[in-house]
Amino acid sequence: MENIYSKIIGGKELDKKKKFFSAEYDYLSLKHQASDQYIASGWEIEKRYKHTTRLKKKKSEKEIFLNSCWSLFYNMGFDKMNSDKTEIGSNDVDIIAVDNETVIFAYCRFSEEIQKRDGLLDDIKTIVNNHEACIRYAKDFPDGKKRKHVILLITKNYILNDQEIAYMDKKVFHFNEENIDYYEELTRHLGSVAKYQLLGYLFAGKKIPGMDDKIPAIEGEMGGHKYYSFSIEPEKLLKIGYVLHRNNANRQMMPTYQRIIKKTRLNSIQSFVEDGGFFPNSLIINIQSKKLNFDYSEKQVQGAVSKIGVLHLPQLYRSAYIIDGQHRLYGYANSRFAKTNSIPVVAFFNLEKQEQVKLFMDINENQKAVPKNLRATLQSDIFGTSKYLFERQVALKSRIAQNLAEELDSPLYRRIIVGENSTTDYCNITLETIQQALNQSDYFNQYTKKSNDLISTGTLDTGSVKETEIIIMKFLKENFLYIQKNLDNEWNETDKTKRFLITNPGIYSLIKIMNDIVNLLLEEKKDTQKEVKIDELLKEMQPYLDTIISFYKEISFEERTRIKKTYGGNGKKLYWRTLQKALHEHYPEFSPEDMVTFWKDNDKRYNEVTYSYIREIELYMREDFKKKLVKKYGDDWFNNLPKSVYDQANKLASDKNYGKPKEEAVDPWTCLNFIHFRDIALNNWQDLFASDYTLPEEKGRSGKKDDKTKWMVKLSSIRNENSHVYVSVKEDEYKFAEKIHNWLISNIY
């Protein structure tokens, strides 16, 4: 029988195995005549030598996944690992990772596509039943050292159900691809130091062998919270410390709030420490423990609020949460000073996580600003337990937005930017966009800010936060999934210049049009149905969604371009109103009043005539103003313009005339517009312009000349705001331009 420890390797043999696992291809060297059968089965020729052929074959996705998981533990600094699958008890274990204190057993399960219903329950039962064999393996390790052990189930493209999760209980930890991605990223930044974070997660609350727990400290109080101030060797704090990184992998530990550690910053801190540098400012931590012993010294300063003594730190993994100073702490991790230097610490005791979030926000508000998207992410944590119902609704919407980004079965999985995750071509939707769409929809109950009074009842809100979250998540995911299946190419467009659906305005508009459809359906049955049945509602929505799907299939390139070139809030509004219009064309009963008003104001029916009015008014005023100025100042009229107008006229003309032949040069006077005319009128109001340029309804009334010339400002605004092809002249703007035209040019009023 093979020795069950024979596949455990270390040193150079382990390094060699890592190199093999890191390779994307398998390689073979064979004599020429022997290579043909391999080539026929999918191997490629990499190079031909005199007597042999070197072949390569890309590893399967499953093998690459297994190898990357194995390599993760190697990169974390586990110095002994298995070279191949190892039979322990009744199971083959994919990964065994060993250091001086721990043994990790990992079973890896891979699927090409996301599996929701083809579960792993039988597999999990076998793994759990093999738990005792793993304990014996760790206990009888050849070097005789006592080690803690943990069993991991690592999956890719599996969504475990409640029964599977419950069966694992506390005997097996589950890591999905989110967890692996997180620890891989952490390891890229920290190297082997990332192992502290892993051990803190896996062995939380378990005793750290051989750790000295006593440390001199000062006990004090601030903000109603007890705290301890002390200096500690970084190595000790690294063992008990844990950082609540804002990351998909840590969702079950909400609220989390810390930024991911950055390698560049960490490297600079490590160099700084190695060169003798130090940080005099304190780390801020929260010690989480059932009990914290503090031995008061016999010698105290009489009358002092603070007390001195000896603090007994918990000898437990993940008992100190790092609120501020993670880079400073981890900067010491690989330093020769990790055991000999000390760093100052302010430690709070048993702060609630919401209080930790608030403290983190307060600290960073006064240092480096918390990024906008991270602030949006943290809203679910800050307001989740608020006494004000409207704040709980804010938290609920934030949580729904994050769930859409982070749940494996969400069509928007990894396409929404969470926390400080980077924007990419694939992940480009902001949390703010989702929250804005939810805020401007009717799904949720609305409450007054302070009195908790109900203002309006939401279409999908049951009054229970948890129930409402489940209902709206199902509503959004199922509808997005229906659209995704019917617009697969559009949904998965990789060229961002062609992308039209998976954009911030696109997702905002889909959520808004879904809200419109719900309102329409519920309006039709308001007298016959009191309670919304989500499955029936989803089915009833599909014909309306089919209309939206047809819109995407039929929309012209020119129309896409027109919508995409309308930026900001106007872009989102135009996009949504366009979807509404498409829905209205197929379902005339869908005709919201605000949609009708919008298209009345934005169908460009008034553009051409309004532009012609404005152009004629501008030409009329230019000619009439010059006539009046010449009458007063003679040939020197231009030099008597207000200085600011004179300068701007010359500058505008100079810019237009640069590089042109002299005969094509423009006159500075022709470069002026309504705002310039107003400045001229104000400078010569009573004697030249008051009688002819005071609106008829203003004549005979008292008032300042600034007020009586405001119509020129409004006309200028209409001219400037509607100066490009994508903006429509509103009806009231058209009527105003017509009124001025009739008065000045047609003499009709």
UniProtKB/TrEMBL annotation:
This is DGQHR domain-containing protein. It comes from Enterococcus alishanensis.
